[in-house]
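Usage

Read records sequentially. Each one opens with the input sequence:
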Amino acid sequence: QVQLAESGGGSVQAGGSLRLSCTVTGFRPSNVAWFRQAPEKEREGVATIWVDTGNTYYADSVEGRFTITQDNAKTSVYLQMNSLEPEDTAKYFCAARRLWGAGWSRGETYPHWGQGAQVTVSS
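and closes with the structure output:
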């Protein structure tokens, strides 16, 4: 059974940092991605890491502030979020798939999702 267990998140003031974790069990994905969704906004792909190569990609809105990594066992993925801004406030979800050749930020291509973690940044 495939499971994605998220942890982390919380509330922080602008300029602060938070870290999200996602542990994937039950299958070996091609890549794991973080998405976020704020009220009345579309879901946005934030970052992804390709499990075998470690290659990473980021949305322009978080480039240089967020870092996605994985552990040596390649079963857990982390999102380190620095210099947080109020605009980063959203519920963050990790997602996993085993698929190549499709854009990483296309949420509909991910069959497996975590439960979500709230991130709130106050000004």
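Summary fields computed downstream for this record:
- The mean pLDDT is 97.
- The first strand starts at residue 3 and ends at 8.
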